[in-house]
């Protein structure tokens, strides 16, 4: 049952480990709750580290394509209007920075990739790439030179995949040259993301609210990983999933009792958006 008398609220929800279950699917309970929230006049914004093409497909699947529906992608580097089907905000990495990250990753024997349109670009085949492609349903291109393949495009992010300790060592060793230029964060223990300095889910939450004239006092953000922390702190109500680490839970205004496999997003919607 919906309640139209409530002030409209906007939920910024992460995908992996939050809205999606461990099979990378959206459960029936979450689907139904999102539908009720939309009918009640609230807004749902997918907010993810995933590429635009992957997020746009999920917007279509959830029918988040009416006027006023948006997605934040690439950990905040892109804001997409899913009704107009156009990018309304974008920040990118220069070719020089992308080339240096690829070269240093090769020296460290780490998998690294970037993005162009609906494809993941990589210079070497790997099991990590194949597993990633299967999860996000994107195309892949193995090319001799990603910069040549990008042409005039600049990508919003670069992703490394590997063992957490190795990624953390790379993160620390590269900090001196990329400080103030490229930010890094983990979207899960095996995914280390590199994005333009100052870009975050939290900043894009604020940018979108400004564009919509939507007060921060009516915002809710839900996530489970380090790359969600900025939006959890930026939103009026920051929610962390039951399946998150204890460190993440300590930063939350509310921790769900249900995890991502058991309707955690439905719990948030019922408690903060549809309650009387």
Q: Tell me about the biggest sheet?
A: 8 strands, mixed
Number of E strands: 14
Q: How much of the polypeptide forms β-strand, as a percent range?
A: 15-25%
SSE pattern, N- to C-terminal? EHEHEEEHEEHEHEHHEEHEHEHEH
Q: Tell me the distance between the termini.
A: 10 Å
Look at the helices and sheets and give the structural class: alpha/beta
Query: Oligomeric state of the chains?
Result: single chain
Low-confidence stretches: 1-5
Strand order of the largest sheet: 5-4-3-2-1-12-13-14
What general outline do the C-alpha atoms trace? globular
Number of helices: 11
- Report helical residue fraction: 25-40%
Mean pLDDT: 94
- What's the alpha carbon Rg, rounded to whole Å? 18 Å
Give the topology, please.
Elements: E1 10-13, H1 28-39, E2 43-47, H2 52-62, E3 70-73, E4 78-81, E5 86-90, H3 95-107, E6 111-116, E7 119-122, H4 127-136, E8 139-142, H5 146-150, E9 158-161, H6 164-173, H7 175-178, E10 182-188, E11 191-196, H8 201-212, E12 219-223, H9 229-234, E13 237-240, H10 246-249, E14 254-255, H11 264-272
Parallel strand pairs: 1-2, 1-12, 2-3, 7-8, 12-13, 13-14
Antiparallel strand pairs: 3-4, 4-5, 6-7, 6-9, 9-11, 10-11
Helix pairs in contact: 1-11
Short key terms for the protein model shown above:
single chain, 276 residues, 6-stranded mixed sheet, 11 helices, globular, disordered N terminus
Describe this structure in words.
Helix 1 packs parallel to helix 11. 35% of the residues lie in helices and 23% in strands. The model is unreliable at 1-5 (pLDDT under 50). The strands form 2 sheets. It has an 8-stranded mixed β-sheet with strand order 5-4-3-2-1-12-13-14, with helices on both faces. Strands 8-7-6-9-11-10 form a 6-stranded mixed β-sheet. It has helices spanning 28-39, 52-62, 95-107, 127-136, 146-150, 164-173, 175-178, 201-212, 229-234, 246-249, 264-272, and strands at residues 10-13, 43-47, 70-73, 78-81, 86-90, 111-116, 119-122, 139-142, 158-161, 182-188, 191-196, 219-223, 237-240, 254-255. The chain is of the alpha/beta class. The chain contains 11 helices and 14 strands.
